[in-house]
């Protein structure tokens, strides 16, 4: 039982980290809290299903298309909507939330509800650790979560765009004097965040069915991890996803699955009350409270 | 040839702005007409609607109350994404008093209004120091948390809720109760914000630190505003729960959080009349579009985006400008 909880807790942490990476990237760089994040996640899940089953493209191609489309949506949303309300926190939240609502309910209108909407696993089967059996898909989730984190680490330190990302995140004005276009970088960061959401969807969704309500849950989980870890801090994200992931799995196994969602909500409430910038974020004291 | 738009206050506005300078019926009418619209609309027109549209009217008024309460909070710089917290708490208090103790709506609604205001203020007191988006996220999470809590612990009827509450004697009574409440809130809030007290509140929104350095305790002011706003929200909840004859988890639903924000965005923030106009446009509109099913929420989301991008000032500010000012194109020299 304990071994099982430990292993599944780790996998749950990986899922949370995957969900939060994209949201965190966009917020950390451009300061936009993308409330359409859950919608983009669901959108890429359905798009993959459509290209795979209705059009009949090969798996890799449809995955590629849906990641590209998600990134494109991110880019467009930034240029068409966000750019006009940039800096007005409330307007950004309302605009992205409204957009997310529209995307998700559009799928409901076209009747994308039911058990047939599932994505295929990469490889079928499972592997045993002692008495605990873990299916390959969950191993892939863990692998991809670790791989993506490593990739992002290297990307933000050794590529031109990555360095520009960090420059904008640290000090926008100084970055501007170095010829970094903050609008362009903001748009690219939004596209990156959306693409990460798509990757998360393609990796995680095979575990269950694609449900529209899942979009809201994804958003809340991503928010919980980002807030607990500190918005914009990657180390914080990893620590927070481990904390919340294990807390969720323990409550699900030892209390009741009903309480699982409550864990992230309570975590958000407590952290915001005590240390709004999160466990691993600095500097922002003045912005967040008086 | 370049042109620019020039805006000049109408002469009648300049003369009648100060209440002492009213010297003709025309000037009085100029001031009175816009204020008469909500009174006539709420008290005069609504009773002549057929029962179905009266029902819609009542639920619109409930949303309008939530929206004006949201507007009061935003005037003090408190961004609330959780009007459903107030609604839910109010509805549960009224529901408990009626379901377990058998109190009549005559007592449950006032008690729920005050108690709900107090409880919500207590819940949000620890985070009153937070600013902007951080406060918003707490308010977004709290109602979700409460509804999950009710679901997980199965207290207060759990997912079933508290059914069979006492309804209002008839539809017209309910209509007049909510109408008078809405008018009182609308004119009361506008009066409040026009007073010196309101000046401090607006100051807190514009620059909290300078209000602090003027030696005013902004937390005291914020607490008071929070209490007033939460009470109005709880009233809406208590009223709505007797209307539906049911108190339960739907009281914490996202609808009650999004609709007021949407109404305020569409109508124009910081004016109280604006959110009311917004509510009276959006709720009946979504009722008409009910046949479209899920598509109406799509429209509704896009509506929000379009308004926030294209007309961020909102309808009321726009109308107000047209009413008070002359606009004309002049050539640039």
Task: Write the SSE topology.
The complex is a heterodimer of chains A (about 290) and B (about 325).
Chain A (H helix, E strand, L loop, with lengths): L1 H29 L6 H19 L3 H22 L8 H21 L16 E4 L2 E4 H23 L1 H11 L1 H6 L4 H23 L8 H17 L4 H21 L5 H15 L10 H4 L2
Antiparallel strand pairs in A: 1-2
Helix pairs in contact in A: 1-5, 1-8, 1-9, 1-10, 2-3, 2-4, 2-8, 2-9, 3-8, 5-6, 6-8, 9-10, 9-11, 10-11
Chain B lengths: L2 E7 L1 H6 L8 H21 L5 H25 L7 H19 L3 H20 L7 H22 L8 E2 L7 H24 L1 H11 L1 H6 L4 H27 L1 E2 L7 H13 L5 H16 L6 H16 L4 H10 E7 L2
Antiparallel strand pairs in B: 1-4, 2-3
Helix pairs in contact in B: 2-7, 3-7, 3-10, 3-11, 3-12, 4-5, 4-6, 4-10, 4-11, 5-10, 7-8, 11-12
Return the CATH class of chain A.
Mainly Alpha
Radius of gyration of chain A: 19 Å
Instruction: Round the mean pLDDT of chain A to the nearest integer and report it.
Output: 84
Shape of chain B: globular
Give the CA-CA distance, first to last residue of chain B: 9 Å
Kindly report the average pLDDT value of chain B. 86
Can you count the beta strands of chain B?
A: 4
Number of helices of chain B: 14
Query: DSSP strand (E) fraction of chain B?
Result: 5-15%
Question: At the third CATH level, what is the topology name of chain B?
Answer: ABC transporter involved in vitamin B12 uptake, BtuC
Distance between the termini of chain A: 46 Å
- Count the beta strands of chain A: 2
- CATH architecture label name of chain B: Orthogonal Bundle
Q: What is the percent of helical residues of chain B?
A: over 70%
Content of β-strand of chain A: under 5%
The assigned CATH architecture of chain A is Orthogonal Bundle
CATH topology of chain A: ABC transporter involved in vitamin B12 uptake, BtuC
Overall body shape of chain A = globular
Question: How many distinct domains of chain A?
Answer: 1
Explain what you see.
The complex is a heterodimer of chains A (290) and B (333). By secondary structure, chain A is mainly α. Chain A has a single domain, classed as ABC transporter involved in vitamin B12 uptake, BtuC. Chain A has helices at residues 2-30, 37-55, 59-80, 89-109, 136-158, 160-170, 172-177, 182-204, 213-229, 234-254, 260-274, 285-288, and strands spanning 126-129, 132-135. Chain A has a two-stranded antiparallel sheet with strand order 1-2. In chain A, helix 1 (2-30) runs parallel beside helix 5. The model of chain A has no long low-confidence stretch (mean pLDDT 84). With 333 residues, chain B is mainly alpha-helical. Chain B has a single domain, classed as ABC transporter involved in vitamin B12 uptake, BtuC. Chain B contains 14 helices and four strands. Chain B has helices at residues 11-16, 25-45, 51-75, 83-101, 105-124, 132-153, 171-194, 196-206, 208-213, 218-244, 255-267, 273-288, 295-310, 315-324, and strands spanning 3-9, 162-163, 246-247, 325-331. In chain B, strands 1-4 form a two-stranded antiparallel sheet. A two-stranded antiparallel ribbon of chain B has the order 2-3. The chains are: A mainly alpha (290), B mainly alpha (333). Chains A and B meet through helix 4, helix 9 and helix 11 of A and helix 6, helix 9, helix 11 and helix 13 of B.
């Amino acid at each position: 039982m304990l071994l099982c909880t430990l292993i599944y807790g780790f996998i749950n942490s990986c899922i949370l980290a995957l969900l939060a990476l994209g949201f965190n990237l966009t917020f950390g760089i451009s300061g936009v809290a993308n409330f359409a994040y859950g919608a983009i996640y669901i959108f890429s899940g359905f798009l993959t299903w459509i290209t795979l089953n209705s059009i009949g493209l090969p798996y890799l191609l449809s995955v590629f298309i849906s990641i590209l489309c998600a990134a494109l949506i991110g880019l467009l949303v930034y240029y068409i909507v966000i750019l006009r309300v940039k800096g007005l926190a409330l307007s950004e939240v309302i605009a992205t939330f409204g957009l997310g609502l529209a995307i998700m309910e559009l799928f409901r209108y076209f009747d994308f509800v039911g058990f047939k909407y599932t994505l295929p696993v990469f490889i079928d089967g499972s592997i045993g650790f002692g008495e605990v059996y873990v299916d390959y898909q969950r191993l892939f989730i863990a692998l991809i979560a670790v791989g993506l984190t490593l990739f992002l680490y290297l990307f933000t330190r050794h590529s031109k765009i990555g360095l520009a990302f960090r420059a904008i995140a640290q000090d926008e004005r100084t970055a501007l004097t170095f010829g970094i276009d903050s609008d362009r970088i903001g748009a690219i960061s939004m596209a990156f965040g959306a693409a990460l959401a798509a990757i998360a969807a393609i990796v995680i969704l095979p575990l269950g069915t694609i449900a529209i309500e899942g979009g809201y849950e994804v958003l809340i989980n991503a928010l919980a991890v980002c807030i607990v870890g500190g918005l914009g801090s990657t180390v914080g994200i990893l620590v927070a996803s481990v904390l919340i992931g294990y807390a969720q799995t323990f409550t699900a196994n030892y209390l009741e699955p009903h309480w699982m969602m409550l864990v992230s909500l309570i975590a958000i409430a407590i952290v915001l009350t005590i240390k709004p910038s999160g466990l691993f974020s600095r500097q922002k004291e003045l912005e967040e409270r008086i | 040839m370049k042109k620019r738009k020039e805006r000049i206050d109408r002469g009648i506005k300049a003369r009648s702005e100060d209440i002492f300078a009213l010297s003709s019926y025309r000037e009085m009418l100029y001031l009175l007409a816009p204020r008469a619209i909500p009174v006539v609309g709420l008290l005069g027109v609504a009773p002549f609607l057929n029962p179905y549209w009266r029902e819609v009217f009542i639920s619109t008024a409930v949303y309008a109350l939530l929206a004006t309460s949201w507007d009061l909070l935003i005037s003090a710089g408190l961004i609330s994404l959780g009007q459903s917290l107030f609604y839910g708490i109010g509805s549960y208090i009224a529901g408990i008093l009626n379901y377990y103790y058998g109190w009549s709506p005559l007592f449950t609604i006032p008690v729920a209004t005050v108690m709900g205001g107090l409880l919500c203020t207590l819940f949000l007191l620890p985070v009153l120091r937070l600013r902007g988006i951080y406060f918003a996220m707490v308010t977004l999470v709290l109602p979700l948390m409460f509804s999950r809590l009710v679901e997980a612990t199965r207290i207060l009827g759990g997912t079933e809720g508290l059914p069979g509450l006492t309804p209002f004697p008839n539809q017209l009574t309910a209509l007049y109760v909510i109408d008078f409440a809405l008018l009182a809130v609308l004119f009361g809030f506008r009066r409040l914000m026009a007073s010196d007290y309101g000046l401090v509140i607006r100051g807190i929104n514009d620059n909290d630190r300078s209000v602090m350095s003027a030696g005013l305790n902004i937390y005291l002011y914020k607490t008071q505003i929070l209490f007033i706003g939460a009470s109005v929200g709880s009233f809406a909840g208590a009223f709505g729960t007797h209307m539906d004859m049911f108190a339960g988890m739907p009281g914490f639903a996202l609808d009650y959080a999004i609709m007021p924000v949407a109404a305020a965005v569409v109508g124009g923030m910081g004016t109280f009349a604006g959110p009311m106009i917004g509510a009276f446009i959006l709720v009946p509109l979504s009722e008409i579009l009910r046949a479209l099913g899920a598509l109406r929420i799509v429209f509704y989301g896009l509506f929000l985006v379009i308004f926030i991008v294209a007309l961020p000032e909102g309808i009321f500010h726009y109308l107000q400008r047209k009413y008070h000012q002359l606009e004309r194109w002049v050539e640039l020299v």
